[in-house]
Amino acid sequence: MYKAPLRASAGLFLIHPLTYVGSFKNFWNFKAETESHVNAKEQYDIQLIKDKFSKLRDHYGVPKYPMVLCHGLSGFDTLTLFEVPQVADANADLEEVAENVKKSGISVNYWHGIEEALTKAGASVIIARVPPFGSIDQRAERLDALLKEKCSGHEGKEPGERLKINIVGHSMGGLDARYLISKIQNEKSPYEVVSLTTIGTPHHGSECADFVMDLVSKDAALEAICPKAIPQLTTHFMKGFNKDVINDSKVSYFSYGASMPPQGVRVFRATYEIIKHEIQKRGGTHFENDGMVSVESSRWGEYLGTLSDVDHLDLINWTNRIKTTVDQLVFDKTPTFNPIALYLDIAENLSKRGF
Description:
With about 350 residues, this protein is α/β, with parallel strands linked by helices. It has one domain (about 5-350): 3-Layer(aba) Sandwich (Rossmann fold). The chain has 14 helices and 9 strands. α6 (about 170-185) links the parallel β6 and β7 (about 190-200). α4 crosses α14 (about 340-350), α5 (about 135-150) crosses α6 (about 170-185) and α7 (about 205-215) packs across α11. The longest helix has 17 residues, at about 135-150. The chain starts with 6 loop residues before the first helix and ends with a helix. The relative contact order is 0.17. Belongs to the putative lipase ROG1 family.
């Protein structure tokens, strides 16, 4: 039977979803699962990608227009773990937040090795930096300001012309980009978005956000520290968002989802079960997810496939090193996913399509 996590754990998850790990006893399970997380029919339905991105190729094509990497909730230049509650203030100055995080958290590069690999391959890369806990519109407005600054003087911009750009968004970063395209950019903008590729973006909301907001509504202490972003990631909010934030016919939209098995050493094991439970509670049967976003919610525009055995952090190359080591030493299992290969392939896909 499904059991909800303790209230204290929910509070930690609320402060930073990526730090929610449950208890260590949930990390490991030698007991064979009696039910596979996806059956053969579902694997076909979700366009499962098993080993396409297991190894790097010798050469990748790159797009002629710059690639803009847009981070998800809580990220900026770095992905920060174990923050203190005060940095969750969506209205705080971005520079102040960044400084507080450096002092109080454990930080790693958000796009770990990805920017370097794309640049080495010959792509022009712009790293976005927006309010980590802000609302979608706040983050999109900051993204617009950054793009105006970066694109106005970009070496690839012709005088009197708008600089064409390709946006690649992880998680909430994809929603920021959709809002930017639909509501903010215009003919006077120094940039023009020609494509958007989203990876693990909750286009139809996250059941984790539903779960958290259900707890928040019953607890004033949790409500007081709830970032503005969380309620905007619920399935209810995204229904209205999708009606209002419509696609631009001049922009090409691509998307990837991911699905992780719930057994073994998994940071997102508890949240995987939360998503599964919430989907089944409303009568759904397709609960495959990456520990934060379901496969069904990840679909937007042309769906390019579901990355197999991949969780939400794997998607930005912050792989669960413990899991990888155990797989290699105990089970003699070779990793089947290299996120750098994914982003280089995204670059090549854009190149082949003339972007």
